[in-house]
Amino acid sequence: MAKELNINLIPKEKLVFANTGEKIRDQKFEDKPIGYFHDAWNRFCKNKASIVAALIIICIILFAIIVPFFNASGSGTSADTRYMKKTPRNLLLSKIGIATGYETSEYRDTALIQFAAIGIGSREDLLNIPTIGDALAEDDFLQPVKKINDSYSVQQGKNKTLFYDATVDTYLQVGFTYEYVEQSEYAKILAWQEETGIQVLYPMIAENEYNFYYSTSGVSDPNWWYKTNNKGQPVRINQSGNATTIKYNDISEVKLVDNYMRDSEGNLKYWTYSGGGDDTTAMYKVRVLYYNYYRYNHDGREPQFIFGTDSVGYDLAYRMAIGIRLSLILSVCIFAINFILGAIYGSIEGYYGGAADLTMEFISYILSGIPFIVVSTLFQMHLAAKVGPIPSLLFAFVLTGWIGTASLVRTQFYRFKNQEYVMAARTLGARDRRIILKHIFPNTLGTIITSSVLAIPGVIFSESMLSYLGIVNLGGTKTTSLGTLLSDASTIWKSVPHLMLFPAAVISLLMICFNLFGNGLRDAFNPSLRGVEE
């Protein structure tokens, strides 16, 4: 046979045992069973998109928890109207060109002179006033105008108006302000100046015909410390006492003339009496450089807001953290309540069926026909005044929110209640409660959890929509929502886009990440995908 097939057989003497003289031990191989949740965790970890989504959700939650405790402004519940609609600013990130607080725009020549004059007026040598070009060249930290990029003239009637494309620090742009302080507070400011070397108080401005705002409206603007005509153009006084407009072709050549208030001896005045009766209660009107005044009121900290400030002057990062916290707590509470109610209701429907199922299904069918927006509006109109806007919104979500979960649970129970393992448990005398909780409900858990988790972004979106439309008013000094922030920014987002950008980005991330996270949970809790760990 071998010759016919032409097969060369190996001689027996060439065959050698590999383990001669050794005993080969039998090895026992067996599978190690693992628990349901352990197996679900292993499958969830294999879904990279869900892991990334979960990490983003955790980061957003940590942001909502940490930011209120480390609020850069010192008091997130108070609005600083001087710093309304300011761009993001962070001293650390500004070193790499991020969150600098700068804004590049086009300015008329008079406006740019005013901004540059803020930096000149904040100098220690107040009476040694340089030209604007010299002041900009010194790269002074308190100079709002950081860079003049370009200039051009526009013909307006018979005259040409100069325009400049410049980069300006929006926080220093606030410049000088008038504040009213008691005499004792004035003494504290003087002591703080002496201790830190940071100047807060500056000379008062004379209210005369050379003060642009005072001469035209009777109101003195503390930033117009230099002499101007009634058009806001800088002037100088000649020997005959007449004011002549400073002519210039280049703004950097302009040299300003101060218009400070002086006493009878020619000394600069740093306050004026504003009322009060004694040395401690007398009120002073003072002129301060607000940037340094802010530092005085916040233990030397400079103003920095990582997401900028909103239209009222609140720290946007703080308000977003409060809004995220409110949205997440509200959505999780609604998820938990609807999940429990829907699971109980749907379990009874699906397990017992018959007349009980028909009656309960008819009730849920009636409730499902009630429009949610109508319910929430009516609750806000009539119930919010008694229990508050948040509880009334919670009631609106819970009134019909459990119906979807109940319907899903009912369908799953109809699917599994006639399976062999359920029939076997019933034959062995297991009670209905044990069959529901131990045998049927775990098999429906994956689908139910996925559906319920996906309801969380739906709640966040619905709450934001109601707040954005003004149906629910969650805005206040202590509470707000992402929808309220979007509503506040809806009319001004073109000029200050960050007010719309950051809240919208957070809502988008929450929606996307919760959906990816829910998909991962669906696969993880799917009993048909259960395996064993070798």
Structure characterization notes:
By secondary structure, the protein is α+β, with helices and mostly antiparallel strands. The chain is elongated, with a radius of gyration of 37 Å. The relative contact order is 0.12. It is built from 18 helices and nine strands. Strands 4, 5, 8 and 9 form a four-stranded antiparallel β-sheet that branches. The model has no long low-confidence stretch (mean pLDDT 83). It is 48% helix and 11% strand. The protein has three domains: 232 residues, MetI-like fold (Orthogonal Bundle), CATH 1.10.3720.10; 81 residues, no CATH class; 124 residues, no CATH class.
Portion in strands: 5-15%
Number of strands: 9
Instruction: Give a short account of the largest sheet.
Output: 4 strands, antiparallel
Number of domains: 3
Per DSSP, the total helix count is 18
CATH architecture of the largest domain: Orthogonal Bundle
CATH C-level name of the largest domain: Mainly Alpha
**Gyration radius, in Å:** 37 Å
Head-to-tail CA distance between termini: 46 Å
- In CATH, what is the homologous superfamily of the largest domain? MetI-like
**What do the pLDDT scores average to?**
83
What is the H/E order? Answer: HHHEHHEEEHEHEEEEHHHHHHHHHHH
The poorly predicted ranges are: none
Structural class: alpha+beta
Shape: elongated
Which fold does the CATH topology of the largest domain refer to?
A: MetI-like fold
**Share of helix among residues?**
40-55%
Short note summarizing the structure:
This protein is α+β, with helices and mostly antiparallel strands. It has helices spanning 2-5, 36-45, 48-66, 109-121, 132-137, 183-196, 212-217, 290-297, 316-352, 354-368, 372-382, 384-387, 389-401, 403-416, 420-427, 432-469, 482-489, 498-524, and strands at residues 102-108, 145-156, 159-169, 176-182, 201-202, 235-237, 243-245, 271-275, 283-289. α3 crosses α18 and α17 (482-489) runs antiparallel to α18 (498-524).
